[in-house]
């Protein structure tokens, strides 16, 4: 993020008492106070359009009325707040609603695991069960993948700076080229070259893990053909396919699961971020019944039963009872694509190229620091938008899915003004 | 947990839709509905005394009135719910209150890191920064340690069943004997034997990580002398000392930090569970300023800013503004110790021995399955209490710290009846 | 190797007393007695042309007269046989001759390390010093590489069957595609794609290790252009380049070092096999002086001073005092290439393609088991020749370099007859 | 070794051309020329008594007449020198003689594996087969163990300086305390405490590897009781027992195998050093037939068939045809023990304590550098003797087993004079 942002005296507490590891409070030096829908307000009364959505956690916007209501009611009734994996009404309701509204209509059958309330917990549990079930060690991940910051998830994350943070070598993983990684090379074929060759040095893996659209890695969207090919390779070589749908799932690309248009069925699916509906910590790992070979308690975690998140999650599922929501996301995604195209055309100084799909799109720009400067300027002008990619080269648009056309238009207006100012 | 518990038809949803990994809902086959203070109610109207406190997450009891009030108010005002590590009022308030009420009066100075909202996130971040700062790989942990289920935390966890769940070898760790592990051996001296010997095979570690009272490992309380010796060894050999105070901290043993009576200052402290006050997911990693050498964003996580938890946490600190709460915990701990002693004396069939300190105590029993049977019978009689230890040999008492004498007495009454029934 | 070879009662001792791991004595079921030049005799008086040369260890043929003489004289004089790395005359003579005859005329400057008398010892020492000097962990190796069977060398070896033999995951290595590995892809460019990308998941490596001609991996010869590109990449990214010249060095490809035609200077070179001249165990690791940062004794080994091998090695260097030997190897290599071409043309049933360079060539055949059958039949007809490649798909020709044209011709005659019989 | 040794101009070649890793040529700055029995001569005509025996490789002394004869004869007859694991007469003779003379009379049954000609090759192969057979990863080794310098062997070697040379973390090993490591603790009981405890953090190992007398680690001799206990633990917990008898075997402690007096049968035995009789590179791995589960070629190595070593080895076995040799070793060992006791008594300035058994004994001294100074002075006075132990605190006596009493007496005379000079 930009460095030329004026000092905000409100930020002193964070600078003095909080660890140097803090990041967003550096790029967006404000104290945020309230939010509704796709708008955020800071303590000085400034309002921002949200093209960030809590890094994909607030697909249903801020402070959805019905979720607020249900949560307040639950608290007032002395509802069980913390319950590990004990039986509670909200947990029961979540399991039923998820099965009835999400899985069944898509002809999917998965056992639901609560691995702890964060994405990295879900990824770690997916890697563990894949290794247990297959008796193998290696996991194939892809260039520019991001799966989390605990040791197992970090081992399948591509970012070198973040990997180095482990302080120890990250083992048992191989990084294959993601779709489009090398011009003119079908990277699925390339991967099969390794799998088919007894001398390739790549041991038969337990699993392949992938994001269909790489969020942190630069809004790289895999083609449906490529996903089908990878899925077929997994079947052919008896490898489990894990789809990390933490950022791209929950409707972000237009369908509930991001892989639906490819017609594939992963063996394991990781969900977090917007699964909790309201922005509360929650994660699930979906496991095909035949691979649900856990012993009781073999993976656990104190916060694996966040009842408040279950309640909001159930509310969120109402968006999926018919196809209206899905249709509206797709319309807005088309609008966004057009806006991106227009900006790239209008401002050749961007050396821009479009990225992504659904409401997970971006503009990759051609000059160093340019994306960061645009985001910093956008913040000054009232738009919250962040960069992505290994060189922070992508301006990334992740508005709440419930945003309306007016909000989108206003966001792109601020963005355009910011581009003009920066160029 | 016991296997002879009658089927509860309410549990079918969990059995059908949830992963085999679920555990507490097997031992306590009920759907829990509401809770207040130290009491829990299930959907069939049964009431239970809580000697479990969410595995140490509910030190301040269920649904504290003032926390409820503050949370409802925040939601009503459209407060920012999810914010990663952006600046918000609740995060600011938490940092200030923690510094003013907890750190300063104890003459402690730490930078506060929000590593993600679970204990294992805190442990992973602690291991990372210790390795970065020292440039070394090895971590010394102790027999029967429990630090979490993600790959890094699991590597310092002693339980073999849980370790095996990783599916890959767990590297870069050495398990030294905890205090009292071998009769007649001063295990701190033993550890120094290894550190001082250039041929011991134990490479100079980045850090030593320990719990002062091992919660999952069998309520093993280290003596203050041993803690001092380990602390001195760390200083002597230039090793960082990490105290995982996730279960034993937050007042559980009588002082806010469990190591206070030893007069030591760890280099890194992990807090979670009850730090969030209300049972909401939250964790912090405290790092001595000189070791806070993170680069911005070197560790991150989507849910590292759980504002609802910050609000409840600040409310919880009111318990620490004077010494009343601390004193009451110590009184109740003394009462608990006496009750334990009495039960061991009265029921020689237990072959019991006392464990732990503060409101983190237990009875280790001498016969296989006996502890599980007692807990199952206690559940039937209206007491929630679980086992602990590598062979589930300990009945573990972790009531909310706010329990009153009457509650404690009632709990022990049920326990005694259950012991009688089982023996 | 073929399974239809008749039982040889002489082999019973091996079958009864030796481990199941034995391999060559299965494919060539004979007890060998004596050998001279390029001919071997078994105990039943059968004579074989040697197109194998001890897997590249007998470049100077069997029982070179002058080596025999020198060795007998040394033994008779009670010369020091075993000396670790103490000073002895043969060690001194070797160091001087190697420097004067091999290094200086090629304008090369390396410190000579004796890492233990086998190739894998040399590779292990190379990996260790590369990691020490750079402070990094990762090593880049290539598909179908073979570097040895101890844990470090095995981790950079591509063969999956042999890797699995480790019984533990092999860490800290990445396998890049060797030259020509993927049709139409410049694999050096591909490798740079990974190195240049901060998100590729491939951490900056300590070293790249390669064979210029992969012996066990299928006689895959890298082009000089590719070697230059890899060398340039190493310079650009500050990575050490290790050339494992254990099989391809010692004149096997026509020059003493196999990389000479590329005009590159590796940072570390591994030599073994024919460096000992007579077939006696010996290995050296050549290290650029600026990287010779070992502490005394940081790597050692009981047999790192094999004086008998030093004596024979010095004799072997006489072949390199002028260019006659080199020229003769090149002539024979050209003859071999022609013969290979002719066989492929004449026998389309082979679906053959030529492999390799120098006197390290082969025919890759298109049908499963065909190469093994040809080798088995050749053995029955008096030619010792083995297969290579991840699917044993290459018939590999490695005659002693001192073979004459008549010997080569006779060998290819037997080969042709064997091909006819098998097809 | 001592630093005050005068420059020897003969050593310049080594200083200039050889790697900094060289060690013995620093402490013993001479060029050695010839040797017979227990005496060595340098190029300047100085004679030395050998109390070092090539670090245990020359148990049968230098240049045994009959071995010389047989080797010369074989070379003269153009015997096969290099043969990988093809059948040859010397290999056959070795297998038969080893079985008939060594194994059968001791009621032992092992398959013989030729893993490559060095000790570390044998250890690596032992670890591999143990992991394969059990399907487990962890190996238990002991404090101050030395097993070799390649990555697998180094991982079970205790010396921190040598471990650090790996440049990567050494995984999958646990270091238990060797016999007598902690005063007053039965370390076998201690080890069982870990094995029996499901929470100890020590995963069930594939194997335990040990030396009965730790040569490099300080001449620490395990008691027969301790060996029996460790053996029984291995049986009880279904763990393979590997005895690394590379230095302590081949008669060094009085019996052919060092563990014979304990009456135990290891599952795997590593032999090297003196197994080759004449000081030529050779190693074998002995595997109980039921564990010989190698696939053909799953482990290999170019120099695994060193025929010259086989020939000398067979000659060496003549020493074991009756008990004379064994008896003489035991007599000399008793003499050595008395001399050590006398020196310790006579020179209290040594603060000496005796170490070891058989002809593998030493004096541990109480002052830093003292052992090194004694060895340096001994060298100046004509005795070759080295230090051992993690702090080089032991003067280590390893004369050839064929030494006579006069030789021993002369050696101890020089030693005593050197002690006097140094103190």
From TrEMBL, chains A, B, C, D:
Q: Which domain of life is it from?
A: Bacteria
- Which cofactors does it use? pyridoxal 5'-phosphate
Q: Which InterPro entries match?
A: Aminotrans_3, Aminotrans_3_PPA_site, Dat, Ectoine_EctB, PyrdxlP-dep_Trfase, PyrdxlP-dep_Trfase_major, PyrdxlP-dep_Trfase_small
Give the enzyme class: transferase
Q: Note whether Cytoplasm occurs among the keywords.
A: yes
The biological pathway it contributes to is: Amine and polyamine biosynthesis; ectoine biosynthesis; L-ectoine from L-aspartate 4-semialdehyde: step 1/3
> Annotated Gene Ontology MF terms?
diaminobutyrate-2-oxoglutarate transaminase activity
Q: Which EC number(s) does UniProt give?
A: 2.6.1.76
Q: Does the keyword Transferase belong to this entry? A: yes
Q: Which family is it part of? A: Belongs to the class-III pyridoxal-phosphate-dependent aminotransferase family.
Provide the protein name.
Diaminobutyrate--2-oxoglutarate transaminase
Per the UniProt record, the lineage of the source organism begins with: Bacteria, Bacillati, Bacillota, Bacilli, Bacillales
């Amino acid at each position: 993020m930009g460095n030329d942002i004026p000092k905000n005296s409100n930020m002193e507490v964070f600078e003095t008492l909080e660890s140097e590891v803090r990041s967003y409070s550096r790029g967006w030096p404000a104290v945020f106070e309230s939010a509704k829908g796709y708008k955020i307000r800071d303590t000085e009364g400034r309002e921002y359009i949200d093209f960030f959505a809590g890094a994909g956690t607030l697909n249903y916007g801020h402070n959805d009325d019905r979720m607020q209501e249900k949560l307040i009611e639950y608290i007032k009734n002395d509802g069980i707040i913390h319950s590990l994996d004990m039986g509670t009404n909200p947990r029961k309701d979540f399991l039923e609603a998820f099965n009835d509204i999400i899985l069944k209509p898509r002809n999917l059958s998965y056992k639901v695991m609560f691995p702890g309330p964060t994405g990295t917990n879900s990824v770690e549990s997916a890697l563990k069960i894949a290794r247990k079930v297959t008796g193998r060690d290696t996991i194939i991940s892809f260039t520019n993948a991001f799966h989390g910051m605990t040791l197992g998830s970090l081992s399948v994350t591509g970012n070198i700076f973040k990997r180095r943070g482990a302080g120890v070598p990250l083992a048992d993983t191989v990084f294959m080229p993601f779709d489009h990684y090398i011009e003119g090379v079908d990277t699925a074929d390339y991967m099969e070259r390794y799998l088919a060759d007894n001398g390739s040095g790549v041991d038969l893996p337990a699993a392949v893990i992938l994001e269909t659209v790489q969020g942190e890695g630069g809004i790289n969207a895999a083609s449906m053909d490529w996903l089908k090919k990878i899925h077929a390779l997994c079947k052919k070589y008896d490898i489990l396919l894990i789809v990390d749908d933490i950022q791209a799932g929950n409707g972000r690309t237009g369908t509930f699961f991001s892989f639906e248009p490819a017609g594939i069925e992963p063996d394991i699916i990781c969900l977090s971020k917007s699964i909790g509906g309201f922005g509360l910590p929650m994660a699930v790992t979906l496991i095909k019944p035949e691979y649900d070979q856990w012993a009781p308690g073999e993976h656990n975690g104190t916060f694996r039963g966040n009842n408040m998140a279950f309640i909001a999650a159930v509310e969120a599922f109402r968006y999926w009872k018919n196809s209206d929501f899905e249709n509206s996301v797709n319309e807005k995604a088309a609008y966004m694509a057009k806006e991106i195209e227009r900006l790239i055309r209008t401002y050749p100084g961007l050396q821009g190229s479009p990225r992504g799909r659904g409401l997970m799109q971006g503009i990759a720009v051609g000059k160093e620091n340019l994306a960061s400067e645009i985001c910093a300027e956008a913040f000054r002008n009232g738009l919250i938008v962040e960069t992505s990619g290994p060189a922070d080269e992508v301006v990334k648009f992740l508005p709440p899915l419930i945003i309306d056309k007016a909000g989108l238009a206003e966001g792109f207006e601020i963005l355009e003004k910011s581009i003009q100012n920066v160029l």
